């Protein structure tokens, strides 16, 4: 279909929880094509539907030469005793990277375009991507997860970049 423009802060669609997909129709099929086309670009690990202006629960990923998507994703498991604390960035918060603690392992369940159950899981970058994209669908940005002092610095940098 098309490579779509990425919405950036302070666009309100990024702060609005996305609606569950209840009917898989041509609109949803087109959305998935756009998500896959748009995430398939250098430097892009994941993309939530609201980042292209659509408030539906769907995201795509592009990790380790694997591109995929999931509809109505829910995080069903996170490692409770292993964490990662690397720099994280976001297409909707361009050029700002900050250390963000995430679970080392994440497992997401959802469906595909045929209504079949989909399980996506991984460690490190894939786990970070899954958590980051589900946060988007819930109306959160990675900036919301930053340590208080780092968040203050990040918000100042964000204001200066707008």
Automatic annotation (TrEMBL):
Biological process terms in GO annotation: translation
Reported cofactor(s): Fe(2+)
Catalysed reaction, written as an equation: N-terminal N-formyl-L-methionyl-[peptide] + H2O = N-terminal L-methionyl-[peptide] + formate
Keyword line: Hydrolase, Iron, Metal-binding, Protein biosynthesis
Domain of life: Bacteria
One protein family per Pfam: Pep_deformylase
GO molecular function, one term: metal ion binding
Enzyme class: hydrolase
Annotated Fe cation binding sites: 90, 132, 136
List of catalytic residues: 133
EC number: 3.5.1.88
Cofactor note: Binds 1 Fe(2+) ion.
Alphabetized PANTHER family for the sequence: PEPTIDE DEFORMYLASE (PTHR10458), PEPTIDE DEFORMYLASE, MITOCHONDRIAL (PTHR10458:SF2)
Function as written in the Swiss-Prot or TrEMBL entry: Removes the formyl group from the N-terminal Met of newly synthesized proteins. Requires at least a dipeptide for an efficient rate of reaction. N-terminal L-methionine is a prerequisite for activity but the enzyme has broad specificity at other positions.
Family the UniProt entry places it in: Belongs to the polypeptide deformylase family.
Descriptive protein name: Peptide deformylase
């Amino acid at each position: 279909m098309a490579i779509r423009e990425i919405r950036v802060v302070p666009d309100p669609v990024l702060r609005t929880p996305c609606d569950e997909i209840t009917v898989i129709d041509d609109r949803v099929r087109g959305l998935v094509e756009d998500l896959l086309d748009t995430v398939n670009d250098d430097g892009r690990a994941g993309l939530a539907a609201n980042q292209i202006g659509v408030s539906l629960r769907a995201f795509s990923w592009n990790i380790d030469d694997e591109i995929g998507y999931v509809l109505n994703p829910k995080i069903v498991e996170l490692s409770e005793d292993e964490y990662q604390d690397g720099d994280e960035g976001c297409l909707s918060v361009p050029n700002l990277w900050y250390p963000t603690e995430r679970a080392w392992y994440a497992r997401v369940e959802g469906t595909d375009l045929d209504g079949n159950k989909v399980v996506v899981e991984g460690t490190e970058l894939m786990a970070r991507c899954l958590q980051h994209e589900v946060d988007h669908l819930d109306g959160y940005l990675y900036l919301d997860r930053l340590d208080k002092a780092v968040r203050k610095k990040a918000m100042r940098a964000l204001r200066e970049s707008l």
